[in-house]
C-alpha cells in the first residue's frame, strides 16, 4: 500500500480486528474506512487523528500529519499485542498504554515476563527477543526513527528464515 502506487495509501487503522485470514491462513488487511492517499512532497494534514485507541501513532495525534510511519507504529503495536496477548484497545479504555507498559518492562529487564504463555511455548527466546526488538523500532516516538514497512517485512522474513533453516520453526509462506 505504501509503495505499490504512485500515491501511497496509509491505512490509519492497522489493528488486529482489521486483519483477516484466508483459507490458507494468509493475512489480508481490511477496513479501509480511515485510509487516505498521500501526495509525495506535500504536507499531508488531514485533520484530527483517526484510528483505534492504543494503536494510534502519538506523533500523528500531536502533529495531525499523516505519513506511512503512522501505519508502521500501529503495526508495531500489533506485534506487541501478538507477543503479549494484551489487547491495546482494552488497555487504552482502562487508561494504560501497551507500548508504554512494554517499554517500561523492557527497561526493567522484565520483558520475558510479559510475553504470552503460548508464545513462550511455541518460540525460542532469541526469536521472541528479535520480534520484540523489531516491534520496539516500529513504535519509536519519532516517525523518522521507525523503519519503513518494506524494512519491517524484510526483517520479519529474515527472522523466519533464520529459524526455519535451523528447523526450529515451521512457518508457511
Give a structural overview.
The protein has 173 residues and is mostly helical. The chain has one domain (9-165): Transferase(Phosphotransferase), domain 1, CATH 1.10.510.10. Helix content is 46%, strand content 6%. It has eight helices and four strands; from the N terminus they run ββββαααααααα. Strands 1-4 form a two-stranded antiparallel sheet. A two-stranded antiparallel ribbon has the order 2-3. Helix 2 packs antiparallel against helix 7 (125-138) and helix 7 (125-138) runs antiparallel to helix 8 (149-165). The longest helix is centred in the middle third of the chain and has 17 residues, at 68-84.
Name the descriptors.
two-stranded antiparallel sheet, mainly alpha, Transferase(Phosphotransferase), domain 1, 173 residues, single chain, 46% helix
Please state the average pLDDT score: 87
Classification by helices and strands:
mainly alpha
Structural domain tally: 1
What is the CATH C-level name?
Mainly Alpha
Biggest beta sheet attributes: 2 strands, antiparallel
Succession of helices and strands: EEEEHHHHHHHH
Q: Radius of gyration over alpha carbons?
A: 16 Å
CATH homology-level superfamily: Transferase(Phosphotransferase) domain 1
The count of helical stretches stands at 8
Strand content: 5-15%
Tell me roughly what share of residues is in helical segments: 40-55%
CATH topology: Transferase(Phosphotransferase), domain 1
First-to-last CA distance:
19 Å
* Number of extended strands: 4
Low-confidence stretches: none
User: Per CATH, which architecture?
Assistant: Orthogonal Bundle
Q: Give the spatial strand order of the biggest sheet.
A: 1-4
